[in-house]
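INTERNAL AUDIT FORM
Audit reference: QA-55
Scope: verify that the stored structure record matches its stored sequence.
Auditor: D.O.
Record contents follow.
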Amino acid sequence: MELCNVTFLPHDKTIKVPAGTNLLEAALSAGILVDGACGGEGICGKCRARLIHGNSATPNKADRNFFSKAE
């Protein structure tokens, strides 16, 4: 199983999670509470984040609803 490092700023907390873990699940695993009204389904936009380093999956339709083309 491939593991990925996820760092939460400004908390400066890094954890390893299995590839494909959604951001809300990763935050909860790190002990960081995120108001995720949709439960990680990607429809409320509360766990919107900026990728600073690394790779991510191709944005899906729900992702594109919460980010501008520049983002």
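Auditor finding: record pair retrieved intact. Strands lie at 3-8, 13-18.
Action required: none
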